[in-house]
Amino acid sequence: MSDNPYEVLLEALPTDARREETLPELERRPDPWESAMQATCECLSWRGTLDNLERRHAEDALGETTYRDFPVHARSAVVTAHELMERGAFTPDELRDRMKLIRERLNRA
């Protein structure tokens, strides 16, 4: 296991993923999971768990450094998970286990 507790997030980047580079790629209609993610972030902010402005600042900083290889639209999810792990909401092992369960469920369909 890595000394980096956020390695679990970096493992989520598919080998064929690429960063959007053109305006049409960036100016697309959000996928349903992205809209749900934004609603979740709003709820986290409303309940005082993760302020939207703090999350956006973290997304700017981490999105251009640690998670720069992730597609722009996926960064919100990984940065939110990063920030929640940093605040002790769950551990890297708990996230890894949950991600494994979800992948298994999606592969059954």
Task: Break the fold down into its secondary structure elements and pairings.
Elements: H1 7-10, H2 23-26, H3 32-46, H4 52-63, H5 75-86, H6 92-108
Helix pairs in contact: 4-5
Through-space gap between termini: 31 Å
SS summary, helix count: 6
Global morphology:
globular
Give the mean pLDDT. Answer: 86
Low-confidence stretches: none
Please report the first level of CATH classification, the CATH class.
Answer: Mainly Alpha
Please state roughly what percent of the residues sit in beta strands, choosing from under 5%, 5-15%, 15-25%, 25-35%, 35-45% or over 45%: under 5%
- For the record, the CATH architecture stands as Orthogonal Bundle
Instruction: Spell out the helices and strands N to C.
Output: HHHHHH
Q: Helix coverage percent of residues? A: 55-70%
Describe the main β-sheet briefly.
none
The CATH superfamily name is Nitrile hydratase, beta subunit
Total count of domains: 1
